[in-house]
From TrEMBL:
<dbReference type="InterPro" id="IPR000620">
    <property type="entry name" value="EamA_dom"/>
</dbReference>
<dbReference type="InterPro" id="IPR037185">
    <property type="entry name" value="EmrE-like"/>
</dbReference>
<dbReference type="GO" id="GO:0005886">
    <property type="term" value="C:plasma membrane"/>
</dbReference>
<feature type="domain" description="EamA">
    <location>
        <begin position="2"/>
        <end position="139"/>
    </location>
</feature>
<feature type="transmembrane region" description="Helical">
    <location>
        <begin position="35"/>
        <end position="52"/>
    </location>
</feature>
<dbReference type="Pfam" id="PF00892">
    <property type="entry name" value="EamA"/>
</dbReference>
<feature type="transmembrane region" description="Helical">
    <location>
        <begin position="264"/>
        <end position="283"/>
    </location>
</feature>
<dbReference type="InterPro" id="IPR051258">
    <property type="entry name" value="Diverse_Substrate_Transporter"/>
</dbReference>
<feature type="transmembrane region" description="Helical">
    <location>
        <begin position="94"/>
        <end position="114"/>
    </location>
</feature>
<feature type="transmembrane region" description="Helical">
    <location>
        <begin position="126"/>
        <end position="144"/>
    </location>
</feature>
<feature type="transmembrane region" description="Helical">
    <location>
        <begin position="64"/>
        <end position="88"/>
    </location>
</feature>
<keyword id="KW-0812">Transmembrane</keyword>
<protein>
    <submittedName>
        <fullName>Drug/metabolite transporter (DMT)-like permease</fullName>
    </submittedName>
</protein>
<keyword id="KW-1133">Transmembrane helix</keyword>
<feature type="transmembrane region" description="Helical">
    <location>
        <begin position="180"/>
        <end position="199"/>
    </location>
</feature>
<feature type="domain" description="EamA">
    <location>
        <begin position="150"/>
        <end position="283"/>
    </location>
</feature>
<feature type="transmembrane region" description="Helical">
    <location>
        <begin position="211"/>
        <end position="234"/>
    </location>
</feature>
Length: 309
């Protein structure tokens, strides 16, 4: 179930690039798109919590420290990652931005090992290598890229920020329900982007119904559903496994772009997708073998037990 949730999250996030292209085509600006994405998602999740109070910590008020941490994940982590990503996108090709960004699974795995949260097993190391190679083929199969050192630094900054975001989220995801955690993260990001928009002279919202349609798709599918599935999957799998499984995202983006936008899907990209799926199989076979040996312990159990203490 944890792997399935991570893959669902990756698919929803992967659709965002296509939704974004369609939104830009009808006049939606990047600043407005980001602000509306997080604001609408926060409002929708808040409504869900209002209608379903049982989704909040069994009615108990969460500790203020956890609430502030969750808000900070959005205000600092998510908002910063998005700003760095779109700044890099202005300087270098999208395929190169995505390629540099998807160094984060390896960064998460290595950081989790250095922090003592997870063991860097041969199977996990192999999964990182296979997923990274597959992602490389998927992204570079799109064609040539233009290089800009500042753009690459910005993209790598987005990868580092997302690495920190996942590791910090892993310390909170076991203590707050996914819906509440997602709502707080979205609210934090929306607040930061609103302040940024006001400081920059305002946000342009004069686009038509088609723009609102694609913005709504991004807010609901590529934010609310994607975020809930990611946190729920992270809770069951641990940070490095969730990061490795999330490399399915660029595969989804490439396929959807080929189907909806008519972009050519080269054979090398298909091969890359197969490698990414192979990495999913690697991380899934490992726990099952342990279960058969009678250990009954998943790779994330060490993290979970540490947080339970």
């Amino acid at each position: 179930m944890g792997a399935a949730l991570c893959l669902l999250s990756a698919a929803c996030f992967g659709a965002m690039a296509v939704f974004g292209k369609l939104a830009y085509a009808v006049g939606v600006e990047p600043g407005a798109l980001l602000l509306l994405r997080f604001a609408l998602a926060a409002a929708l999740l808040g409504f869900v919590l209002l209608v379903r109070p049982d989704l909040r910590s069994g009615g108990a008020r969460p500790p203020l420290r956890l609430v502030l941490t969750a808000l900070g994940l959005g205000a600092v982590g998510y908002a910063t990652q998005a700003a760095l990503y779109f700044s890099a996108l202005e300087r270098i090709d999208a395929s190169l931005v995505a390629l540099v960004l998807y160094t984060y699974p390896a960064l998460v795995t290595l950081a989790a090992a250095l922090l003592g949260r997870e063991r860097l097993t041969p199977a996990r190391s192999a999964a990182v290598l296979v997923a990274s190679c597959g992602t490389l083929l998927v992204l570079l199969g799109a064609g040539g890229v233009r290089f800009d050192s500042i753009g690459v630094v910005l993209a790598f900054g987005a990868a580092v920020t997302y690495t920190a975001y996942i590791l910090v989220a892993d310390t909170v995801v076991h203590r707050l329900p996914p819906v509440l955690l997602s709502a707080l993260v979205m609210a934090g990001a929306a607040l930061t982007l609103a302040v940024r928009g006001i400081a920059g002279g305002g946000v342009e919202l004069g686009f038509g119904p088609a723009g609102w349609l694609w913005v709504g798709c991004i807010a609901v599918v590529s934010t609310v559903v994607a975020m809930l599935a990611f946190f729920a999957g992270l809770r069951r799998t641990g940070p490095s496994t969730a990061a490795i499984l999330s490399t399915f995202e660029p595969v989804v983006t490439t396929v959807l772009a080929a189907v909806t936008l008519g972009e050519f899907l080269a054979p090398v990209q298909v091969l890359g997708g197969v490698l990414v799926l192979a990495s999913v199989a690697v991380v899934q076979l490992r726990p099952r073998r342990r279960a058969r040996r009678g250990t009954g312990r998943r790779p994330a159990d060490g993290i979970r037990l540490a947080f339970d203490r």
